[in-house]
Amino acid sequence: MALTEKALAELRQLTAPEAVLTAQADLIPYSFDGTAALKQMPEAVVFPRTTEQVSAVVKWANQARTPVVTRGSGTGLSGGSIPVAGSVVLCTVKMDRVVELDTRNLTILVEAGATTQAVADATTAAGLFYPPDPGSMKISTIGGNVAENSGGLRGLKYGVTRNYVMGMEVVLPQGEVMWLGNKCVKDVAGFTLKDLFVGSEGTLGIITQALLRLIPKPAAKRTMLATFAQMDQAAECISAIIAAQIIPCTLEFLDRTTIHSVEAYAHIGLPLDCEALLLIETDGHPAVVEEESGRIVEICRQFGCQRISVAKDDAEAAQLASARRTAFSALARVSPTTILEDATVPRSELGRMIRCIQAVASKYNLRVGTFGHMGDGNLHPTFLTDERNLEEMARVEKALHEIFAEALRLGGTLTGEHGVGLAKKSFLPKALGDHQIRVMRELRQALDPRQILNPGKLFD
After folding, report:
1. Strands across the sheet containing 20-21
2. What are the two backbone dihedrals, phi and then psi, of residue 157, each rounded to the nearest 5 degrees?
3. Closest CA to 257 of 330, 337, 364, 355
4. CA-CA 20 to 30 A from 283: which of 100, 157, 222, 432?
């Protein structure tokens, strides 16, 4: 239902006249996110600058029975920030302050619209380290990272966003403001409610501030690049590294299609005569780095590594890391539509999952580039297709069903870091089962009985 001029005037009064967009041309960039083939125009976009304004907008939405879809930079890959019909998009990018950097307690308090890169820069300047590093970290926002429980290249050793959230400020679906958590390293008073909102995809509340845990910066690191003649060899090598109880900071994988796409796009100097490459980084105490990197080289050679090289300095290491960070952008240039998926399996099953992806791509005659965080079992099979070709898109849908079914059969999950959103909600009941879905629905109904916040995401 279209918003009346009276309703729009109320929105402007709650925020500021310039904080509300309503012109169709202005709304188009907020009708989609990073997910292919999903789009819906909102009725308006509002840019609050304070928690009080967020609260006021949510209270207004309850009275007006208007859905609110929270959005950061729109880099999501599961349709979590796609508007629903008749909705208002609440965009947090104007709430981007670093509120406090506490070096005594190793925490940083930031507003939801602060970018991941801004947090990394602020902590690095203080000699500290914020490990989560999603591929879109230059523009993705902390609020979105928390709402999606984002991962990144360093997730293998350091974990995902959830592992660094110590507290948060949340606006609940009726507009109440609640603070969860604190700076205490240990706190077991009551339910750990903050964990309920991490990964909730904007369906239970709107995160306006996050208190994040920091750690000391590693003293040393070493970056290596290993190439393989077969993807199976690379997958089995990764399983062997983990089985040897070595946990690198980064253990990333690119297949032939991705390698060639990245090299054509970024001209990094990647070897083109291999079927797969591994980007490996170990960090920590210099002696540990020396020992771990030596053992990793030995294991790579045991599994038929063609060649392995070590970055000579930080600049070369950063360049090699950029090969992985640009993978999605590079593949997106190949075809009109790029569908980046997010299947995750136990690390012992990587070889089987790689073979499944190859077989499914061949069965349905689809072009697929695969890359990902193989050190933590998180694969990104990326379909290079054209959404205008309905027959091909039907084959993509069948391929996705088979890939997800195999991931679940191997003890894996539908998503390791991208979330469920719209794109994967039809798969969720099979992944979680009736009891989990029922409990999730009951939690959502208890917090948001009017279904104001991000309706239609996760489940109908």
Report:
1. 20-21, 44-46, 88-91, 68-71
2. -90, -35
3. 330
4. 100
Domain topology for 5-91: 3.30.43
Residue type, 177: V
Q: What percent of the chain has pLDDT over 70?
A: 100
Buried b (16+ CB within 10 A) or exposed e, 285-296: eeeebeebbeeb
pLDDT at 1: 67
DSSP secondary structure, 377-400, as one string: TEEEEEEEE-TT-HHHHHHHHHHH
Distances (CA, A) of 423 to 152, 168, 438, 444: 20, 27, 20, 19
What do you get for the CA distance between the two ends of the chain, in Å? Answer: 19
Domain-wise residue ranges, the chain: 5-91, 98-216, 220-409
Backbone phi and psi for residue 251, each to the nearest 5 degrees, phi listed first: -145, 85
Residue-wise pLDDT tens digits, 275-333? 999 999 999 999 999 999 999 999 999 999 999 999 989 888 888 888 888 899 999 99
DSSP secondary structure string, 92-129? -TT---EEEEETTTTEEEEETTSBHHHHHHHHHHTTEE
Say what the pTM is: 0.95
In words, the CATH class of domain 98-216 is alpha beta
Nearest to 158 by CA among 127, 131, 128, 133: 131
In whole angstroms, what is the distance from residue 181 CA to residue 187 CA? 8
